[in-house]
Design a protein that fits this description.
The chain is α+β, with helices and mostly antiparallel strands. It contains three helices and eight strands. It is rod-shaped and about 135 Å long.
């Protein structure tokens, strides 16, 4: 049974590679990417490289380009060799030169060779699994998953709603206070007007009394 691997767009958090085996769609996510094998088919060189990079990440090594072959007709890539870069990159600086000499002398043979059979079809022609050095899976700092982001958005949304409710309550209280002040001012104005009217009446009576003397 031939398996065709199709590269699908990846989201910001988790890489995803899908394969179609006998018409059945199979998804490989997280730590479930299968091991390459000779005869495995890909829809493009990029899909093959993405697949091998993900496989390498899970197994515990870093990839590099070993070889490339271009078409004499149009200069397009028709084959690509990908392999292991060698031992861990997290060695002490004082051993760097020794490591470079050892890699040139020994060289890790783990690799994959893919060739273009026809447009839209690349096949694994060679796969070497074994490495001549320890494999170390480097744990990268995890980024928030979509679920965590959604949870954070929900928390912020809930907090925003609370702030809006508080703002609305404060606004209502302020309007009530302003209305009370307005009513109080109106009441004072009426009292002042009554006093003014009373003073006018008293003044009128005083003038009337003076005239009748």
């Amino acid at each position: 049974m031939e398996t065709v691997v199709m590269q699908t767009p990846t989201d910001n958090e988790t890489g995803r590679i899908e394969t179609s085996a006998g018409g059945e769609l199979i998804s490989f996510e997280g730590d479930t990417v299968q091991e390459p094998y000779e005869g495995m088919l890909f829809e493009s060189e990029g899909a093959a490289r993405s697949f091998y990079d993900e496989y390498a990440r899970q197994v515990g090594f870093v990839t590099r380009v070993l070889s490339s072959r271009k078409s004499e007709r149009d200069g397009s890539i028709i084959s690509r060799g990908l392999g292991c870069r060698g031992g861990s990159d997290n060695q002490k600086t004082r051993h760097l030169q020794t490591q470079k000499r050892d890699r040139r002398r020994e060289g890790c043979t783990a690799m994959i060779l893919v060739k273009r059979e026809k447009p839209g079809q690349w096949i694994v022609r060679k796969f070497v699994r074994d490495h001549n050095h320890p494999l170390v899976v480097q744990l990268q700092k995890s980024r928030p998953t979509l679920d965590e982001k959604d949870k954070k958005i929900q928390e912020l949304t809930a907090e925003l709603r609370v702030k809006k409710r508080l703002t609305s309550a404060y606004r209502e209280q302020l309007l009530m206070f302003m209305k009370d002040v307005e009513d109080h001012n109106e009441h004072l104005s009426k009292k002042v007007q009554v006093i003014v009217d009373n003073l006018k009446d008293l003044e009128a009576r005083r003038q009337e009394l003076l005239q009748h003397r």
